[in-house]
Amino acid sequence: MVERPFIEDARLASIRTAYDTVAVDYAELLRDELTVKPWDRGMLATFAELVSADGPGPVADLGCGPGRITAHLHDLGLDAFGIDLSPGMIDVARAAHPAFRFDVGTMTDLAIPDASLAGAVAWYSIIHSPPEQLPVVFAEFERVLAPGGRLLLAFQVGDEHRHMDAGYGHSISLDAWRLSPDAVALLLEDAGLQVDARLVRQPDSWEKVPQAFLVARKPADEPVASAY
């Protein structure tokens, strides 16, 4: 993939700076997180099984961070690659997983051809988009998915905006939103994506709120009716 420039506003710049700052420590702290989260692994495995059953094709890990989910998707048999706004995160991902592809980019302007992905994962990466911008994000997801392509979202449940001044041992400035699964499902449907399943699990001991996982699908092209 050829990286292309994108228009960056102050919000995107703040997200990029925050994740550039914490990239190394973030990767180390969360490196083995999936090993103690069976529900999360189950949703990723279900997504991978569905995508594989539909046939081969690339899968984008959108907001991939240090690449741990990208690598896990590879372990599940998918042809996955990662995209992240933070060059610092991409550097960490490339160093940790040199066999895989990682690119800098933004979810609102993906350098991916129309209808080219068998699947896409946004694992806690939509949380930094204000709710009013999610229709733009989901429209871009719909654009890049092939007919029948699958989408997996993960996010924290709630209805509030949070501003963080510190994280992963660093001073940062970062905004995040907890989201309603019902509201997210409606926005996905408005973008032309059919929600097939959802899971809301209770927080683990170190989490503050329930966690949501939604699996959606871009409807396949309708077959032409036979005249006979």
From TrEMBL:
InterPro entries per the UniProt record, alphabetical: Methyltransf_25, Methyltransf_Superfamily, SAM-dependent_MTases_sf
GO molecular function, one term: methyltransferase activity
Annotated organism of origin: Leifsonia tongyongensis
PANTHER family with a match to the protein in the record: METHYLTRANSFERASE, METHYLTRANSFERASE TYPE 11 DOMAIN-CONTAINING PROTEIN
Name under which the protein is recorded: Class I SAM-dependent methyltransferase
Annotated Methyltransferase domain residues: 59-149
Highest taxon of the lineage: Bacteria
Keywords annotated in UniProt: Methyltransferase, Transferase
Lineage, opening ranks: Bacteria, Bacillati, Actinomycetota, Actinomycetes, Micrococcales
Gene Ontology process terms (BP): methylation
Entry keyword annotation includes Transferase: yes
